[in-house]
Amino acid sequence: MIVAFSVTPLGVGEDVGEYVADAVRVVRESGLPNRTDAMFTSLEGEWDEVMAVVRRAVDAVAARAPRVSVVLKADIRPGVVDGLTAKVATVERHLAEG
Fold first, then answer.
1. Phi, psi of 29 (to 5 degrees)
2. What is the pLDDT of residues 24-69, one digit of tens each?
3. Local structure of residue 14 (DSSP, 8 states)
4. Of 19, 31, 14, 32, residue with least CA distance to 60
5. CA–CA separation, 20 and 86 (whole Å)
6. Within 10 A of 98 (CB to CB), how many other CB atoms are there?
7. In terms of pTM, does the model score above 0.85?
8. Sequence-separated (6 or more) residues with CB below 8 Å from residue 93
9. How far is 98 from 94, CA to CA, in rounded Å?
10. How far is residue 5 from each of residues 12, 17, 76, 98, measured CA to CA in Å?
């Protein structure tokens, strides 16, 4: 499965990058395939391991913020491996074809 999620601390002011970095650090240390962009962090793996990482990422932010908002979207497709890269490669291939 691939999960795209964002964790936003609330009640800490406008500059939240420091808190978001705590969540991204947890994801990167998990060893699972991941990618972070301006809006979401995407993470790929089996259900239990992905959700455990999301939970730890949320907990890392919640340890320093009085309130946390989480947005999560999941693509559950058994048997697919390297979907995080393959999905983007498919779109790029179609773009190159014109």
1. -75, -15
2. 999 999 999 999 999 999 999 999 999 999 999 999 999 999 999 9
3. S
4. 19
5. 26
6. 4
7. yes
8. none
9. 7
10. 20, 15, 14, 31
